[in-house]
Amino acid sequence: MFYIIGLGLCDEKDITVRGLEAVKSCSRVYLEAYTSILMVEKSRLEAFYERPLILADREMVETESDEILRDADKENVAMLVVGDPFGATTHTDIILRARALKIPVRVVHNASIMNAVGACGLQLYNFGQTVSLVFFTDTWKPDSFYDKIKENVDLGMHTLVLLDIKVKEQSEENLARGRKIYEPPRYMSIPQAVSQLLEIEGLRRSGILSPEETLAIGLSRVGGDESQQKIVSGTLAELVTQPADAFGEPLHSLVVVGKRVHHLEVEYAQQFAVNETGWRHVARNVYKCALDD
Amino acid sequence: MFYIIGLGLCDEKDITVRGLEAVKSCSRVYLEAYTSILMVEKSRLEAFYERPLILADREMVETESDEILRDADKENVAMLVVGDPFGATTHTDIILRARALKIPVRVVHNASIMNAVGACGLQLYNFGQTVSLVFFTDTWKPDSFYDKIKENVDLGMHTLVLLDIKVKEQSEENLARGRKIYEPPRYMSIPQAVSQLLEIEGLRRSGILSPEETLAIGLSRVGGDESQQKIVSGTLAELVTQPADAFGEPLHSLVVVGKRVHHLEVEYAQQFAVNETGWRHVARNVYKCALDD
Hints:
The structure is a homodimer.
Chain A: E1 2-6, H1 17-24, E2 28-32, H2 42-49, E3 54-56, H3 58-63, H4 65-68, E4 77-81, H5 89-100, E5 105-108, H6 113-116, E6 131-133, H7 144-155, E7 159-163, E8 165-166, H8 172-176, E9 186-187, H9 190-204, E10 215-220, E11 230-235, H10 236-240, E12 252-256, H11 263-270, H12 276-285
Parallel strand pairs in A: 1-4, 1-5, 2-3, 2-4, 6-7
Antiparallel strand pairs in A: 7-12, 8-9, 10-11, 10-12
């Protein structure tokens, strides 16, 4: 059996009982570690799962799937994935490959940011399409996310914005010279994400994102305990000026609040507001949300 | 501490290790059982969790939250929720109430249909807003879902349609006479859901849903093993004529495929097709999807 097992959001204990039993039955266990990260070191996972973990980077999953699937028709092999297994296209590729090889596959689901984002108090069914935001460089500022946010904003839907992470990236020089030297990992912060949104709004000027009149919610380490998870709500102007360390360690995500926001959503997210009065003021006067007072 | 713990999708083993440890530390454990259901009986959960479970119906969660939260500042109390805790508004209500009472709260996330629907091969970030479909009666056919599907269809987004369940409902006669006699639970089937979609399309006639030219995917018991989970893809005409037992036991969900579908999504979902040739034909000719052949 080939298992693809979601690890959830935080640490070694977020695996499900079903997932843990499966891991312990496996002769080889791969840890996919490039589309997201957990909050703990690999060694802590290995100690808890009682199995050595083979790190599988993007290159390996994409080009060596037959090695990962080797003998999975005769013994159990698992690939562990942060969040849920259906967060990234690559996992459907390896499932299709397994089926072609007549290897039985079992997916073990878990929480991912796509549903755990509900922790901010916005209702999941009011979210439109999800967008990804990549690190801008001086010469490369891809802005297709803007059109998607605009589609959601025009309908009044919320938008979950997933922030870029750079793991095992090479510098341009090292890449050009073929040197397999990797840069330290980088994770986009919420102020940086908001800054990039506003930069593109400044170029495109369709008025969908306003520093003072667009509400947003930054989330970090969703699913962690009170010392880990951090949620901050406010206007884009408030979020962009948060200190760099306001959200702590990665991973970070951002939600742009849509105009159809319900008053119960506003009330719930108010507990996370930089400025509660300001939060309610914009919700009432710009979003036309029917708040009690 | 007040814990709200997601149980995931299928059975007692879908709880996370963190969730299980929390349950075993609790002096009272409530099972919320009206917005969704697991595939197993309460007694099996109790045996595995080693705790008696107090069933909490909608009325209890909404009106007796202080009883549920009693002493949670001094001991541990848990409410167990099928899927993830942020699937229904009610859970934000009880969290707000706990905070007002200065009771610490910890949410333990899990998979829900909102992210596990990725099992059908469609990418989660290509989904628009989620809609709910309720049982029609002769006199009551609420159709606001249609406008929302239209918004998604117009943008080319996929739509997750959540199908009604009726648990602990009273007949009109028993309700009128104040008799607390409840009807057997009812779960909307996928053919019935498609039939209701087409009924409203017949009335509204905006052409967003076509029996022969709209692709959809029915899912049941997502997250179950091969004997449980069932996914069937096809045109609406194909799904509406599936035998009533084609999808087996509840819960069932439906996805309406949007026009921006990527060829890898079509390729993946093809394995579930009623008719693979027809599936590809509509994807290529109606959806204009760039398939290889």
